[in-house]
Protein backbone atom coordinates (compact mmCIF):
# COMPACT_ATOMS: atom_id res chain seq x y z
CA UNK A 1 0.00 0.00 0.00
CA UNK A 2 1.31 3.45 -0.92
CA UNK A 3 1.80 5.29 2.43
CA UNK A 4 1.05 8.67 0.83
CA UNK A 5 -2.30 7.27 -0.31
CA UNK A 6 -3.00 5.84 3.17
CA UNK A 7 -2.25 9.21 4.77
CA UNK A 8 -4.57 10.88 2.27
CA UNK A 9 -7.35 8.45 3.26
CA UNK A 10 -7.16 9.79 6.82
CA UNK A 11 -7.49 13.35 5.54
CA UNK A 12 -10.53 12.45 3.45
CA UNK A 13 -12.17 10.68 6.41
CA UNK A 14 -11.68 13.70 8.65
CA UNK A 15 -12.53 16.36 6.06
CA UNK A 16 -15.67 15.47 4.17
CA UNK A 17 -16.75 17.06 0.92
CA UNK A 18 -17.24 20.80 1.18
CA UNK A 19 -20.20 22.58 -0.35
CA UNK A 20 -19.78 23.12 -4.11
CA UNK A 21 -16.62 20.98 -4.15
CA UNK A 22 -17.44 19.13 -7.35
CA UNK A 23 -14.34 18.96 -9.51
CA UNK A 24 -11.23 17.21 -8.21
CA UNK A 25 -7.79 17.06 -9.85
CA UNK A 26 -5.16 14.61 -8.59
CA UNK A 27 -1.54 15.24 -9.59
CA UNK A 28 0.65 12.12 -9.94
CA UNK A 29 -2.44 10.13 -9.05
CA UNK A 30 -2.09 6.51 -7.95
CA UNK A 31 -4.71 3.81 -7.42
CA UNK A 32 -6.11 3.56 -3.89
CA UNK A 33 -9.14 3.83 -1.68
CA UNK A 34 -9.10 7.65 -1.90
CA UNK A 35 -10.74 7.30 -5.34
CA UNK A 36 -13.74 5.69 -3.65
CA UNK A 37 -13.69 8.17 -0.74
CA UNK A 38 -13.88 11.02 -3.27
CA UNK A 39 -17.18 9.61 -4.49
CA UNK A 40 -19.89 12.10 -5.41
CA UNK A 41 -17.30 14.38 -7.02
CA UNK A 42 -15.94 14.39 -10.57
CA UNK A 43 -12.35 13.13 -10.23
CA UNK A 44 -9.71 13.67 -12.91
CA UNK A 45 -6.35 11.91 -12.48
CA UNK A 46 -3.10 13.29 -13.88
CA UNK A 47 -0.36 10.74 -14.33
CA UNK A 48 2.57 10.76 -16.78
CA UNK A 49 4.08 7.39 -15.80
CA UNK A 50 2.58 4.69 -18.02
CA UNK A 51 2.40 1.75 -15.56
CA UNK A 52 0.55 3.95 -13.01
CA UNK A 53 -1.65 5.41 -15.72
CA UNK A 54 -2.50 1.88 -16.92
CA UNK A 55 -3.33 0.82 -13.35
CA UNK A 56 -5.70 3.80 -13.00
CA UNK A 57 -7.28 3.04 -16.39
CA UNK A 58 -7.99 -0.53 -15.23
CA UNK A 59 -9.99 0.99 -12.36
CA UNK A 60 -12.01 3.05 -14.81
CA UNK A 61 -10.51 6.38 -13.64
CA UNK A 62 -10.57 9.46 -15.87
CA UNK A 63 -6.91 10.12 -16.71
CA UNK A 64 -4.73 12.47 -18.72
CA UNK A 65 -1.07 13.47 -18.79
CA UNK A 66 -1.94 17.16 -18.37
CA UNK A 67 -4.92 19.47 -18.10
CA UNK A 68 -5.98 23.10 -18.02
CA UNK A 69 -9.35 22.36 -16.41
CA UNK A 70 -10.23 24.36 -13.28
CA UNK A 71 -11.04 22.45 -10.08
CA UNK A 72 -12.43 22.89 -6.56
CA UNK A 73 -10.13 20.41 -4.84
CA UNK A 74 -6.55 19.70 -5.97
CA UNK A 75 -4.58 16.81 -4.49
CA UNK A 76 -0.83 16.51 -5.06
CA UNK A 77 1.16 13.34 -4.48
CA UNK A 78 4.78 14.34 -3.84
CA UNK A 79 7.49 12.69 -5.95
CA UNK A 80 11.20 12.22 -5.38
CA UNK A 81 11.88 15.35 -7.47
CA UNK A 82 11.31 18.35 -5.21
CA UNK A 83 11.12 20.76 -8.17
CA UNK A 84 8.44 18.58 -9.75
CA UNK A 85 6.33 18.59 -6.58
CA UNK A 86 6.62 22.39 -6.32
CA UNK A 87 5.62 22.60 -10.00
CA UNK A 88 2.55 20.45 -9.37
CA UNK A 89 1.63 22.52 -6.30
CA UNK A 90 1.91 25.71 -8.36
CA UNK A 91 -0.09 24.18 -11.21
CA UNK A 92 -2.72 22.95 -8.76
CA UNK A 93 -3.10 26.41 -7.24
CA UNK A 94 -3.24 28.06 -10.65
CA UNK A 95 -6.15 25.72 -11.60
CA UNK A 96 -8.04 25.97 -8.30
CA UNK A 97 -11.13 28.11 -8.19
CA UNK A 98 -11.13 30.84 -5.54
CA UNK A 99 -11.69 29.25 -2.10
CA UNK A 100 -10.80 25.76 -3.41
CA UNK A 101 -8.63 23.43 -1.34
CA UNK A 102 -5.07 22.27 -2.06
CA UNK A 103 -4.09 19.03 -0.31
CA UNK A 104 -0.55 17.63 -0.52
CA UNK A 105 0.50 14.20 0.67
CA UNK A 106 4.27 13.76 1.05
CA UNK A 107 6.42 11.02 2.56
CA UNK A 108 8.86 12.34 5.15
CA UNK A 109 11.80 10.93 3.18
CA UNK A 110 10.65 13.01 0.18
CA UNK A 111 11.23 16.15 2.25
CA UNK A 112 7.67 16.60 3.57
CA UNK A 113 8.53 19.22 6.26
CA UNK A 114 10.33 21.44 3.77
CA UNK A 115 7.52 21.03 1.19
CA UNK A 116 4.99 22.03 3.82
CA UNK A 117 6.99 25.17 4.58
CA UNK A 118 7.15 26.02 0.87
CA UNK A 119 3.42 25.45 0.51
CA UNK A 120 2.78 27.86 3.40
CA UNK A 121 4.89 30.48 1.57
CA UNK A 122 2.73 29.98 -1.52
CA UNK A 123 -0.80 30.06 -0.11
CA UNK A 124 -0.54 30.73 3.65
CA UNK A 125 -2.98 29.35 6.23
CA UNK A 126 -1.69 25.77 6.12
CA UNK A 127 -2.79 22.96 8.45
CA UNK A 128 -1.21 19.52 8.65
CA UNK A 129 -0.88 16.14 10.36
CA UNK A 130 1.57 13.22 10.25
CA UNK A 131 0.60 9.63 9.53
CA UNK A 132 2.33 6.57 8.01
CA UNK A 133 5.70 8.42 7.91
CA UNK A 134 4.04 11.06 5.70
CA UNK A 135 2.69 14.55 6.18
CA UNK A 136 -0.58 15.74 4.75
CA UNK A 137 -0.91 19.51 4.54
CA UNK A 138 -3.68 21.63 3.11
CA UNK A 139 -5.00 25.13 2.73
CA UNK A 140 -7.41 27.22 0.68
CA UNK A 141 -6.65 29.34 -2.35
CA UNK A 142 -7.33 32.91 -1.38
CA UNK A 143 -6.10 35.39 -3.95
CA UNK A 144 -5.38 38.06 -1.34
CA UNK A 145 -2.63 35.98 0.28
CA UNK A 146 -1.39 34.00 -2.74
CA UNK A 147 2.27 34.69 -3.67
CA UNK A 148 1.88 34.91 -7.46
CA UNK A 149 5.57 35.58 -8.13
CA UNK A 150 6.51 32.40 -6.26
CA UNK A 151 3.87 30.44 -8.17
CA UNK A 152 5.24 31.71 -11.49
CA UNK A 153 8.82 30.83 -10.52
CA UNK A 154 7.85 27.24 -9.57
CA UNK A 155 5.95 26.88 -12.83
CA UNK A 156 9.00 28.04 -14.81
CA UNK A 157 11.33 25.72 -12.86
CA UNK A 158 9.19 22.69 -13.75
CA UNK A 159 9.14 23.31 -17.52
CA UNK A 160 11.58 22.09 -20.18
CA UNK A 161 14.97 23.76 -19.83
CA UNK A 162 18.52 23.19 -21.14
CA UNK A 163 20.79 20.82 -19.24
CA UNK A 164 23.83 22.91 -18.43
CA UNK A 165 26.77 22.31 -20.78
CA UNK A 166 24.66 20.37 -23.34
CA UNK A 167 22.20 21.07 -26.13
CA UNK A 168 19.61 18.82 -24.47
CA UNK A 169 16.30 19.85 -22.94
CA UNK A 170 14.93 18.24 -19.82
CA UNK A 171 12.71 18.96 -16.82
CA UNK A 172 12.08 17.79 -13.26
CA UNK A 173 10.32 14.43 -13.07
CA UNK A 174 12.64 12.81 -15.61
CA UNK A 175 15.42 10.40 -14.64
CA UNK A 176 18.69 12.31 -14.03
CA UNK A 177 16.88 15.38 -15.31
CA UNK A 178 19.64 17.97 -14.86
CA UNK A 179 22.81 16.03 -15.67
CA UNK A 180 23.94 13.25 -17.96
CA UNK A 181 23.85 10.00 -15.99
CA UNK A 182 27.40 8.61 -15.64
CA UNK A 183 26.25 5.09 -16.59
CA UNK A 184 24.60 6.39 -19.76
CA UNK A 185 27.72 8.40 -20.57
CA UNK A 186 29.86 5.25 -20.25
CA UNK A 187 27.50 3.33 -22.54
CA UNK A 188 27.54 6.18 -25.10
CA UNK A 189 31.35 6.04 -25.15
CA UNK A 190 31.21 2.30 -25.90
CA UNK A 191 28.58 2.34 -28.67
CA UNK A 192 30.08 1.20 -31.98
CA UNK A 193 29.77 3.36 -35.10
CA UNK A 194 28.68 0.50 -37.40
CA UNK A 195 25.09 0.09 -36.15
CA UNK A 196 22.67 0.12 -39.08
CA UNK A 197 19.05 -0.62 -40.02
CA UNK A 198 16.27 -0.37 -37.46
CA UNK A 199 16.77 -0.43 -33.69
CA UNK A 200 15.35 0.65 -30.35
CA UNK A 201 16.28 2.59 -27.25
CA UNK A 202 14.46 1.14 -24.22
CA UNK A 203 13.74 3.49 -21.33
CA UNK A 204 14.97 6.25 -23.60
CA UNK A 205 14.56 9.10 -21.08
CA UNK A 206 15.05 12.50 -22.68
CA UNK A 207 16.86 10.88 -25.61
CA UNK A 208 20.51 11.24 -24.65
CA UNK A 209 21.59 7.76 -25.84
CA UNK A 210 19.55 7.96 -29.04
CA UNK A 211 21.04 11.31 -29.85
CA UNK A 212 24.60 10.12 -29.25
CA UNK A 213 23.92 7.08 -31.43
CA UNK A 214 22.31 8.98 -34.31
CA UNK A 215 25.05 11.59 -34.35
CA UNK A 216 27.64 8.88 -34.99
CA UNK A 217 25.87 6.23 -37.14
CA UNK A 218 24.52 7.52 -40.45
CA UNK A 219 23.31 4.06 -41.57
CA UNK A 220 20.46 3.90 -39.05
CA UNK A 221 17.21 4.31 -40.93
CA UNK A 222 14.71 3.64 -38.10
CA UNK A 223 14.76 4.09 -34.35
CA UNK A 224 12.01 3.29 -31.81
CA UNK A 225 12.17 5.08 -28.48
CA UNK A 226 10.22 3.36 -25.70
CA UNK A 227 9.73 5.30 -22.48
CA UNK A 228 7.19 5.09 -19.64
CA UNK A 229 7.55 8.69 -18.45
CA UNK A 230 5.60 10.97 -20.76
CA UNK A 231 7.55 14.07 -19.73
CA UNK A 232 10.76 12.31 -20.80
CA UNK A 233 9.33 11.16 -24.12
CA UNK A 234 8.20 14.69 -24.99
CA UNK A 235 11.68 15.99 -24.15
CA UNK A 236 13.21 13.24 -26.34
CA UNK A 237 10.99 14.32 -29.23
CA UNK A 238 12.45 17.83 -28.96
CA UNK A 239 16.01 16.60 -28.45
CA UNK A 240 15.91 14.41 -31.57
CA UNK A 241 14.04 16.82 -33.85
CA UNK A 242 17.20 17.52 -35.87
CA UNK A 243 17.44 13.83 -36.87
CA UNK A 244 13.82 13.34 -37.90
CA UNK A 245 14.39 14.13 -41.58
CA UNK A 246 17.16 11.53 -42.00
CA UNK A 247 15.83 8.74 -39.75
CA UNK A 248 12.36 7.39 -39.18
CA UNK A 249 11.81 8.07 -35.45
CA UNK A 250 9.00 6.46 -33.43
CA UNK A 251 8.16 7.65 -29.93
CA UNK A 252 6.24 5.15 -27.78
CA UNK A 253 4.74 6.03 -24.40
CA UNK A 254 5.04 2.46 -23.29
CA UNK A 255 5.65 0.01 -20.43
CA UNK A 256 8.59 -2.07 -21.69
CA UNK A 257 7.92 -4.84 -19.14
CA UNK A 258 4.93 -5.81 -21.33
CA UNK A 259 7.34 -6.80 -24.16
CA UNK A 260 7.83 -4.78 -27.33
CA UNK A 261 5.31 -4.35 -30.15
CA UNK A 262 8.16 -4.53 -32.73
CA UNK A 263 10.40 -7.40 -33.76
CA UNK A 264 13.40 -8.35 -35.91
CA UNK A 265 15.32 -5.33 -34.67
CA UNK A 266 18.93 -4.97 -35.78
CA UNK A 267 20.04 -3.51 -32.45
CA UNK A 268 18.85 -2.31 -29.07
CA UNK A 269 20.56 0.14 -26.73
CA UNK A 270 19.51 0.84 -23.15
CA UNK A 271 20.30 1.90 -19.63
CA UNK A 272 17.51 -0.08 -17.95
CA UNK A 273 15.86 1.13 -14.75
CA UNK A 274 16.50 -0.90 -11.65
CA UNK A 275 14.30 0.98 -9.19
CA UNK A 276 10.57 1.28 -8.66
CA UNK A 277 10.21 4.30 -6.41
CA UNK A 278 13.01 3.99 -3.87
CA UNK A 279 13.25 0.19 -3.89
CA UNK A 280 15.95 -1.57 -5.93
CA UNK A 281 14.28 -4.06 -8.23
CA UNK A 282 16.59 -6.07 -10.50
CA UNK A 283 13.47 -7.78 -11.94
CA UNK A 284 12.73 -4.57 -13.82
CA UNK A 285 16.14 -4.65 -15.53
CA UNK A 286 15.64 -8.33 -16.31
CA UNK A 287 12.27 -7.58 -17.96
CA UNK A 288 14.00 -4.96 -20.13
CA UNK A 289 16.76 -7.38 -21.15
CA UNK A 290 14.22 -10.06 -21.97
CA UNK A 291 12.11 -7.61 -24.04
CA UNK A 292 15.23 -6.49 -25.92
CA UNK A 293 16.52 -9.99 -26.67
CA UNK A 294 13.10 -11.30 -27.74
CA UNK A 295 12.68 -8.41 -30.19
CA UNK A 296 16.11 -8.62 -31.81
CA UNK A 297 16.49 -10.55 -35.04
CA UNK A 298 18.89 -13.50 -34.92
CA UNK A 299 22.41 -12.09 -34.79
CA UNK A 300 21.10 -8.66 -33.67
CA UNK A 301 23.07 -6.79 -31.04
CA UNK A 302 22.14 -5.42 -27.62
CA UNK A 303 24.24 -2.81 -25.82
CA UNK A 304 23.39 -2.00 -22.23
CA UNK A 305 24.86 -0.54 -19.08
CA UNK A 306 24.06 -1.75 -15.57
CA UNK A 307 25.32 -1.46 -12.04
CA UNK A 308 28.21 -3.88 -11.75
CA UNK A 309 26.63 -5.90 -8.94
CA UNK A 310 23.37 -6.63 -10.78
CA UNK A 311 23.06 -10.28 -11.85
CA UNK A 312 21.97 -10.19 -15.49
CA UNK A 313 24.50 -12.59 -17.04
CA UNK A 314 22.45 -15.77 -16.54
CA UNK A 315 19.45 -14.31 -18.36
CA UNK A 316 21.62 -12.93 -21.14
CA UNK A 317 23.16 -16.37 -21.73
CA UNK A 318 19.78 -18.00 -22.36
CA UNK A 319 19.40 -15.86 -25.52
CA UNK A 320 22.91 -14.95 -26.54
CA UNK A 321 25.50 -16.67 -28.63
CA UNK A 322 28.12 -14.16 -27.55
CA UNK A 323 28.42 -11.67 -24.75
CA UNK A 324 31.25 -9.34 -23.91
CA UNK A 325 31.94 -6.76 -21.20
CA UNK A 326 33.08 -3.64 -23.06
CA UNK A 327 33.86 -1.45 -20.05
CA UNK A 328 33.77 -1.46 -16.27
CA UNK A 329 34.14 1.83 -14.47
CA UNK A 330 32.63 3.86 -11.62
CA UNK A 331 30.49 0.91 -10.46
CA UNK A 332 28.99 0.31 -13.95
CA UNK A 333 29.53 -2.32 -16.59
CA UNK A 334 28.72 -2.02 -20.29
CA UNK A 335 27.80 -5.23 -22.10
CA UNK A 336 27.54 -6.19 -25.73
CA UNK A 337 25.30 -9.19 -26.41
CA UNK A 338 24.74 -10.89 -29.75
CA UNK A 339 21.50 -12.85 -30.11
CA UNK A 340 21.75 -16.48 -31.21
CA UNK A 341 21.47 -17.21 -34.93
CA UNK A 342 22.38 -15.02 -37.89
CA UNK A 343 25.95 -14.46 -39.00
CA UNK A 344 28.17 -15.73 -36.15
CA UNK A 345 31.45 -14.20 -37.42
C1 LIG B 1 18.21 4.53 -16.05
S1 LIG B 1 17.02 5.53 -16.87
C2 LIG B 1 17.83 5.81 -18.44
C3 LIG B 1 17.25 6.99 -19.19
C4 LIG B 1 17.95 7.38 -20.48
N1 LIG B 1 18.10 6.25 -21.38
C5 LIG B 1 19.30 8.00 -20.19
O1 LIG B 1 20.26 7.36 -20.53
O2 LIG B 1 19.33 9.10 -19.64
C6 LIG B 1 15.74 4.38 -17.22
C7 LIG B 1 14.52 4.94 -17.92
O3 LIG B 1 13.53 3.92 -18.00
C8 LIG B 1 12.26 4.50 -17.80
N2 LIG B 1 11.34 3.44 -17.32
C9 LIG B 1 11.16 2.99 -16.05
N3 LIG B 1 10.26 1.99 -16.03
C10 LIG B 1 9.88 1.81 -17.32
C11 LIG B 1 8.99 0.91 -17.95
N4 LIG B 1 8.32 -0.02 -17.25
N5 LIG B 1 8.85 0.97 -19.31
C12 LIG B 1 9.52 1.90 -20.02
N6 LIG B 1 10.39 2.78 -19.48
C13 LIG B 1 10.57 2.73 -18.15
C14 LIG B 1 12.50 5.60 -16.78
O4 LIG B 1 11.47 6.58 -16.85
C15 LIG B 1 13.87 6.12 -17.21
O5 LIG B 1 13.75 7.17 -18.14
Let me know the number of strands.
18
As a percent range, the share of helical residues equals: 25-40%
Under CATH, the topology of the largest domain can be stated as Rossmann fold
In DSSP terms, counting alpha (H) and pi (I) runs of 4 or more, how many helices? 11
- CATH homologous superfamily grouping of the largest domain: Vaccinia Virus protein VP39
Ligand set: S-adenosylmethionine
SSE map:
Elements: H1 3-14, E1 23-27, H2 34-37, E2 42-46, H3 50-58, E3 62-64, E4 71-77, H4 82-95, E5 96-107, H5 112-123, E6 127-131, E7 134-140, H6 148-157, E8 161-162, E9 169-170, H7 182-190, E10 197-202, H8 208-214, E11 220-227, H9 230-239, E12 248-253, E13 265-270, E14 275-276, E15 279-280, H10 282-295, E16 296-307, H11 313-319, E17 320-329, E18 332-339
Parallel strand pairs: 1-2, 1-4, 2-3, 4-5, 10-11, 10-13, 11-12, 13-16
Antiparallel strand pairs: 5-7, 6-7, 8-9, 14-15, 16-18, 17-18
The chain binds S-adenosylmethionine.
The site of S-adenosylmethionine (SAM) has 21 residues, from helix 8 and strand 11.
Amino acid sequence: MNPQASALDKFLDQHPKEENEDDVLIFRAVPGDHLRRLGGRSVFCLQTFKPESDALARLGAKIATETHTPCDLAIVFATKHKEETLYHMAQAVSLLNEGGRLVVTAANDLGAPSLEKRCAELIGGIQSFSKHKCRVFWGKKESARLDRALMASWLRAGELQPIQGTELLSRPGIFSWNRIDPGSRLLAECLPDDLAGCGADLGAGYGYLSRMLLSRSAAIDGLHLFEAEHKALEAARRNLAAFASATSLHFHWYDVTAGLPVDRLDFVIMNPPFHTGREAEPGLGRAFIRAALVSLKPGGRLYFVANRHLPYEKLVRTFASREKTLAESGGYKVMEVRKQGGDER
